[in-house]
Amino acid sequence: MSQDIQGIAASDGIGIAPVYLLTPPDLSYQKRQIDDPTQEYQRVKQAFADSIADLQQIKENAKERLSDKELDVFDAHITILSDPEMLGQIRNEINDLRVNAEEAVSKVTGNFANMLAAMRDNKYMQERATDVRDIAQRTLSHLLGKELPNLAAITEPVIMVAHELTPSDTSQMDPRLIKGIVTDTGGRTSHAAIMSRTLRIPAVVGTNVITEQVRNGQRMVVDGLSGHVIVDPSNTEINAYRQKAAGYSEQSAEWAQLVDAPSVSKDGKRFHITANIGTPDDVNDVIKQGAEGIGLFRSEFLYMGSDHLPTEDEQFEAYRRVIVNMQGKWVVVRTLDIGGDKPLPFLPLPREMNPFLGYRAIRICLDHPEIFKPQLRALIRASQYGPLSIMFPMIATVQELRKAKRIFNDCKEELQAKQPGIGDDIRLGMMIEIPLAAVNAEKMAREVDFFSIGTNDLIQYSFAADRGSDAVSYLYQPLNPAFLNLVRHIILAGHKYDIPVAMCGEMAGDKWALPLLMGMDLDNYSMSSSGVLRTRSMMKHLDTTECRHVVNDAITNCSTSQEVKSLVRNSLNIK
């Protein structure tokens, strides 16, 4: 009898193949006292050198399959292995406690990984603990003389099943043979998830139990569209999933025809579908997927990926590169949004009971013009190279917005003293992600050139439900009728004062929300680049007049998210 295991859908597609259970070698060891610390430390240095050589070779072998962005992780691993601070801590452990190399390496890397894993408010940093464990595992394998699994040696189609997958693992995978990936751990931002999407391998992560439930050679179906994993599927189930896979392939081919098409509804209403990015390297996929611009450049990743506050010139180069590569399409940059779940190690912030409600984003920038001004100056300078919009995050009051605009204008005047006219074409906007700003949208609209609704935060603040808490995840309800009414109020307020309204949260790419947002006349839909073509395809089959009736019915007559979803499904025949 088949078994259905639910996880997180991390990479679209359907995979059917036998299980390949990735079992790492036994890297256990005996802690022991040593007599010669110098010799023991030499063992560590040699193991680090061998690990660096491994990573360089793996990177070289993966160049044909991975982008520069994915390959960067190996440079990051090599940097850690080359860090004199880590080696120094290991040497101190050996010298002070007279322990063997294996014990010193395990303790120092384990402490670092545990520190990262404990950062529950920062999913990105939490998942970097896997990188450190990967480095530790590779170093121990050399110290113990045991080989790590060689995924490049796989010769038959398989589904890769593991407790967790490291970047080294995924980089060795041949997508022609790896038909799917399933892990116990991980989320949509883990390396396994990111690389599986890059390699176009269907993936389900975060199942918690998959390695305990399967054995090598069992047949398995991985449904990366829904997050389901079927162990020992019946022939009937396999045939049904083969049909689903064929349908998805046909759908993908249809979507690919829309790369250069406009985003238009069935009745001819024009919208814009743009993409969210975190780094300049993301632009390649934005262009490949046919996005009509960048609706959200999360500039904080320029800071989070650095060991120092990026200089004005460093930021200018990053912004200029994105604007030039977008070839005349609009680029919307969100100013520095740190705090909450995005700390900066080189910018200590006060410890708070409720960091999401505390000192973050625009609140930090307004207090620290020495950080804010270099970013604004860099953006103004970069605006010479193409259309640029700047939006301020986490605005609660008109006073905050006006203060941010004054600082921007001060920077522009300083630069225009030497270069008249620079920055005059920049559009200034704000994110609507705080309920008070949403309620006060009409007055806010008089102050800016555009709105962008950040639904991820607006939902968590409206429902008083931390979006990082599993216990209250049921309150993530973008289809809640009251929340839909709030979104409609924001859009109407923007249009009353003739400014366009965008949405850059997850809701913008939600297939159940799309008809409702079209019915509200939302202008711009910004999402991950992988959702652009699917959304454009769906949009062209929807009539805005019908959508308008549905959204009115949803807000007026429905009481729950489930009722709204049923209404959308039945009224517009959405599957």
Q: What is the CATH architecture assignment of the largest domain?
A: Alpha-Beta Barrel
Cα Rg: 25 Å
Runs with pLDDT <50, length 5+?
none
Residue share in β-strands: 5-15%
Number of separate strands: 17
How would you describe the overall organization of this protein?
Helix content is 47%, strand content 14%. By secondary structure, the chain is of the alpha/beta class. It has three domains: 3-23 and 150-254, Glucose Oxidase, domain 1 (3-Layer(bba) Sandwich), CATH 3.50.30.10; 37-144, PtsI, HPr-binding domain (Enzyme I, Chain A, domain 2); 269-572, Phosphoenolpyruvate-binding domains (TIM Barrel). It has an eight-stranded mixed β-sheet with strand order 1-8-7-3-4-5-6-2. An eight-stranded parallel β-barrel has the order 10-11-12-13-14-15-16-17. The longest helix is centred in the first third of the chain and has 26 residues, at 37-62. The chain is globular, with a radius of gyration of 25 Å. The two termini are 28 Å apart.
Short description:
With 575 residues, this protein is of the alpha/beta class.
